[in-house]
Amino acid sequence: MRINLSNILKHLNKILIYLFIFSGNILWVSGQNFTAAFIKTVTFNTDENLNPILPLGSPIKIAFDDLEADQKNYRYSIQHCTYDWEISNLQPTEYINGFQSFEILDLENSFGTYQNYTHHQFEIPNRNTRIKISGNFLLTVFNEDDEICIQRRFVYYEPLVVISAKTVRDRSIEQINKKQVVQFSIFHPNVVINNPSKEINIQILQNNDWNFVKKRIKPQYYRKNEIVYRYNDETSFLGGNEFLHFDTKNFNSSNVNIVKSVLENHYYNTYLYPNSPRNYLPYTYFPDINGGFTIRTLNGSEATTESEYTNVHFSLKADKTLKKQENIYVYGAFNNYAFTEENRLIYNKKSKHLETEMLFKQGFYNYCYAIKQDNSVDISSINGSYQETENSYTILIYFKPFGQRMERIVGAATINSKQ
Q1: Buried b (16+ CB within 10 A) or exposed e, 371-388
Q2: What's the pTM value of the predicted model, to 2 decimals?
């Protein structure tokens, strides 16, 4: 009798995944931000497809395209996470009514496109799954072989406290033209907080990007039913610069920032004008959507299944410093701010530019260039940083009373640096 070792390992892998799911824990990869190579255009029904931060009970519609177009069977799983985005020790019945994991049944094939794909979508809450508490959550999508294909974070909050916030310029002379400072107060007349420094945690996100977050900041001082955070350094962010953009909604006409879109070898290719580093230039206002994207097409009537995919060619002029860099990436919400070989720029000795190319579904996209460092992301060295830049800041209030296992998010507010 011949034993097939690969089949045994495959079945063991399935068993391990199921054990993790039913024990209330799940295996995750890539720091909770993963997309398989054949999956493209993971979208939410939130504005500009930024990471969802919504009131508890609000619907979240998740969609994605499978470029292998073979109508795979997918299922989703939802895990509750702690303040630090580790899997919590809560049991699924404590945060979900219904099923923690369920099949994704809504799918449709693309129509009349050169690049075939299958469009999958589902919505939370649904009749099988309803989240019943606020907090951090990790969404994972598996294929029929129990391989992780997508992982994304989302947040539900309860509007139990009121947040008054504003942005101001940094007080230090060295940073006054580069940084933006978030200052805010929490009003909680209907929530009893006995020890704010122990029971309250906050997170401040810039443009709903989890790579740019301030956390574990203690209250500065208290008043009656008010907790005040009026720091400078502790809540200061580099302003960065406005995002660059391109729009591929129409292949039949010229478009700003696009040299040409051509049909080559049965696929569309879109060539962008070369970009230059902007760190030495004065600030110029270009309206953007803070790194997000929107799917749309003028070459079909249904954007979800009739939009084409195009290979977008990026080019960044490289000086002596940049051409030696091996960790410069095209950066944006189009792949949830991930760093992969696909969006990494490679120096071309012939053109003397840093270049890469990626598949994008037709639509309007924001992007910039980022340098990946060991434990941080630098978008200012190439793009510049200006206190005038338009950014959004979201403040999340985490509340865990003494002696309780469950940490809730009792408030959230988003402010704009231009207002």
Answers
A1: bbeeeebbbbbbbbbbbb
A2: 0.90
The predicted structure's pLDDT at residue 254: 77
Letter for the amino acid at 41?
Answer: T
Contact 255, 312 (CB under 8 A): no
Task: Give residue-wise pLDDT tens across range 11-60.
Answer: 444 444 444 443 334 344 345 789 999 999 999 987 789 999 999 999 99
Q: Where in the chain is the domain with CATH 2.60.40.10?
A: 5-157
| DSSP β-ladder status, 258-264 and 267-272 | antiparallel
Show the 3-state SS of 17-77: HHHHHHCCCCCCCHHHCEECCCEEEEECCCHHHCCCEEECCCCEEEEEEECCCCCCCEEEE
How is domain 5-157 classified at the CATH fold level?
Immunoglobulin-like (2.60.40)
d(CA 354, CA 395): 36
Q: Give strand pairing partners of 200.
A: 399
For 354-365, give one letter per residue: b (16+ CB within 10 A) or e.
bebbbbbbbbbb
Question: In this structure, are strands 377-378 and 363-372 parallel, antiparallel, or unpaired?
Answer: antiparallel
Token pair belonging to 166: 């504003």
CATH numeric code, 162-240+390-416:
2.60.40.150
Instruction: Please report, for residues 43, 49, 104, 119, 349, the alpha-carbon distance to residue 302 in angstroms, rounded to integers and kept in the order given.
Output: 15, 18, 21, 12, 42
Q: Residue 319 carries which side chain, given as an amino acid letter?
A: D
Residue 119 and residue 106 in contact, taking contact as beta carbons nearer than 8 Å:
no
Torsion sign over Cα 81, 139, 76, 62: positive
Distance CA 65, CA 158 (A): 32
- Rounded-to-integer distance, Cα 223 and Cα 85, Å: 31
In the chain, CATH 2.60.40.150 sits at 162-240+390-416
Q: How far apart are CA 274 and CA 257, in angstroms?
A: 9
